[in-house]
């Protein structure tokens, strides 16, 4: 029984993982003024941030239509017996609903759609983990993959530190008054997922403190099953956080670990770029960490 994995581009899975794990991506629509682009098809990440920095127009994103999903599902059902379609939170996007509509129309019980209740690589890490399992065990059953997905979804989290509050203001995420006082205080807001929504988590006064907060949060969790460091535009801050977390891979397994080292993640740290769905609001210089693990008591 062959099973195919479907994602959407707002999951921000790096292209090398899409290819390596045979994940099919449905692109999100990105609108600048009157022009509409398909993410990762005719608008790449670096190009998007150059357009965003010009400041002439603030972009908007919209979910793929049910018709977009129908085309992908129809094509993939020619290659696979069943499809597992995993998408960003239904509380922040209509992508999940578009997928459900398409699956009901052409799936005939062959397509399972799951709401990840997260965004960007909070969802992407789940998909990578499930796709890796499927790649290593071709005989995997859909019921086992669904159970695995739901378990990972319950343990997935993402946090984003914004270098500036300007884009949160431009996108209507905070009021002009809050942005004004935040600017005076040099606040570097940290946003993240909670119950399927993107909310304010913390308000450090510097990026150094914001990055420390991200690392502490990530390493406060136990039994990690995946981790990623993300950026909008790559900066010293994003490289520093990536090097800091990926450096744990060199931890001497024979050396007795201190209490602070017990929760360190020692697997591969994925490096990824935020797409327009989050990047338009986080703005240039934003850095994030996504991880899957058991929450601390």
Short account of what is shown:
With 297 residues, the chain is of the alpha/beta class. It has helices at residues 15-20, 45-54, 66-76, 95-106, 120-136, 142-153, 166-170, 176-184, 207-220, 236-246, 276-282, and strands at 3-8, 23-26, 29-32, 35-38, 60-62, 82-87, 111-115, 156-161, 190-194, 197-202, 222-231, 269-273, 287-294. Helix 3 packs across helix 4 and helix 5 packs antiparallel against helix 6 (142-153).
Give the strand line-up of the largest sheet: 10-9-8-13-11-12
Q: Based on helices, strands and strand pairing, what is the structural class? A: alpha/beta
Query: Share of helix among residues?
Result: 25-40%
The count of β-strands is 13
Structure description:
The strands form 3 sheets. Strands 10-9-8-13-11-12 form a 6-stranded mixed β-sheet, sandwiched between helices. The longest helix is centred in the middle third of the chain and has 17 residues, at 120-136. It has 11 helices and 13 strands. β11 (222-231), α10 and β12 (269-273) form a beta-alpha-beta unit. It has 2 domains: 3-28 and 63-153, 3-Layer(aba) Sandwich (Rossmann fold), CATH 3.40.50.10170; 156-294, Hypothetical Protein Tm841, Chain: A,domain 3. 45% of the residues are buried. The chain is an alpha/beta fold.
